[in-house]
Every structure is written in C-alpha cells, then in structure tokens.
From TrEMBL:
Organism whose genome encodes this protein: Xylophilus rhododendri
Keywords, comma-separated and alphabetical: DNA-binding, Transcription, Transcription regulation
One Gene Ontology MF term: DNA binding
Matching SMART domains: HTH_ICLR
PANTHER family, per the entry: HELIX-TURN-HELIX TRANSCRIPTIONAL REGULATOR, ICLR FAMILY, HTH-TYPE TRANSCRIPTIONAL REPRESSOR ALLR
Domain IclR-ED: 85-263
UniProt protein name: Helix-turn-helix domain-containing protein
Length: 263
C-alpha cells in the first residue's frame, strides 16, 4: 500500500471512529464520574457545576441513572449518591481482569510474610489508581478500598509509575496538576520531585515518608507483567515499625522477588 493510500485509510478510520462516538454517553458518564472526584452525596447544582452541563441536562441524566439504579436520592435533602450497583461493576472488573488474577497471589504472599499493607497500582493520566489493596491492621477504611485515585506525585507507587516519563513531560504534568500537600511534610516543590523520580529511575525503587499520612513509610517498585504492562507494587507501614534501613534490608528484596515472579 502506498504512503498516500495509508494516510487516506488512517484518515477514514479516524472519521469512522468519530462517527461511532456517542457524545450523550460521554455526558452521562460525567455525572457518574463526578462522584469519584468528590465521594459522598452531591446536589443537582453541584453536579451541573462539576460536569459543565446545564442544570436541565444534568437533571435528565440524573433521572436516567436513578431509573437504572446507579443513583439514589435522599428523601429529605434530595441529594444524590451512588448505589451498590456501581460496586457490582467494580467487582466484575476485579474478578475478571487477568492482571489482578496474575498479581494477587504474589501480593498475598508479601502480606502474609510481613503483615503489612500491600498494593497494586497503575497510572491513569496524571494520576495513579489502586487496583488491589491487601490491608494491614493499621490502615483506615479509605486506605483499604481498591479504586482510590491519587495524584501520581503523592506517594511511592505513583512516583515509580512516573519514572517512565521524560523531564519535559513531568514539568508539563506539574503545570497541569501541582501536587497536593496531604501532610505538612508532603513534597510539593518541582526540583525535589524531579530529583526523587530520577533517583527512583536509577535505583529501581523509591521510599517515601510522611507523604499521604504522617509517620507512614512506603516503598514501591515497578513490575512488568506477562501482557507487557507496567504496574507498581508497593508496601506501606509506620515509621514506628520500620526504619528506612529496615525497609531497604527486608522489603525491597522481597518486592523484587515478587516482580521477578510476574515476568
């Protein structure tokens, strides 16, 4: 096929994909995804503001999601929240995803060996998402649940996932989404973050302290799974139980062994 024919075929395929795109579905999903950015209940005006939809359009989408069982409305306040039907979708994903099936047994071994929180995460744009979290006794409910999305700057797993980015990409990401200071000691200045990510790229691991929770120490490495995808495997505990030296001596070798078993 000539280069001109290839270009024409690609252009036609692109136009076809755009033709198949259903904009109304995208707008409807904005309403559901608003609850991911601000967990809890939301009012109709808040939803309209968060999604960029007009109030009447937001009302129609809300009514539809209520009828389908994905949203419920408080009888007194009239505020809306997700129902357990959203959890059913998440369960189907977690149960059927081959990545979860491959990695989960190795994470369970780490958790049972050390009794610490172990997690699996991947990158979503400028953020990282926990796909699987095996808790320790110290974790709060929010920290135990999979699906939590955080800025990739904010913790060990996210910073490892950023090691594949060029410096100019990281600078642009910082401009779009500056880091959130979860604690008084969260690292938020760009030069320090760039240096830490560069060091993590060289070492193959990263250790963080006090980043999302005070007195918490976390460690993460990258692992390449059989599909070729890169994920982060991390562990977290308290500084009362593990010093950085102990993390290096005990946890990092165990994480590398787990990563090697996934290839």
């Amino acid at each position: 096929m000539s280069e001109e024919a290839q270009d024409g075929f690609a252009e036609e395929a692109g136009e076809k994909k755009e033709y198949l795109y259903v904009a109304a579905v995208e707008r409807a999903m904005r309403v559901l995804e608003a609850f991911a950015t601000r967990p809890g209940d939301l009012g109709l005006t808040e939803l309209a503001d968060m999604t960029g939809l007009g109030k009447s359009a937001a009302q129609r989408f809300v009514f539809t999601w209520e009828k389908l069982g994905y949203l419920s409305r408080d009888g007194g306040s009239r505020r809306l929240r997700l129902t357990s039907k959203a959890v059913e979708l998440g369960h189907s994903y977690l149960k059927g995803d081959p990545l979860i099936a491959q990695v989960a047994p190795h994470l369970a071994v780490l958790r049972d060996q050390f009794g610490l929180a172990v997690n699996l995460s991947l990158r979503r744009g400028d953020d990282m998402v926990y796909l699987l979290r095996l808790p320790s006794r110290q974790l709060t409910l929010a920290e135990m649940l999979p699906g939590r999305r955080l800025p990739a700057w904010s913790n060990a797993s996210g910073r490892m996932l950023l090691t594949g980015c060029r410096e100019d990409e990281l600078r642009e990401m910082y401009r779009r989404q500056p880091p959130i200071a979860f604690t008084p000691r969260t690292t938020t200045d760009l030069p320090t973050l760039l240096a830490e990510i560069a060091q993590a790229r060289e070492d193959g691991y990263v250790i963080t302290q006090h980043q999302v929770n005070m007195h918490q120490i976390a460690v993460a490495i990258l692992a390449t799974v059989s599909s070729g995808a890169q994920v982060a495997i991390g562990m977290a505990t308290t500084l009362d139980d593990y010093s950085p030296a102990r993390v290096q001596a005990e946890l990092i070798p165990a994480l590398f062994r787990a990563a090697a078993a996934l290839r």
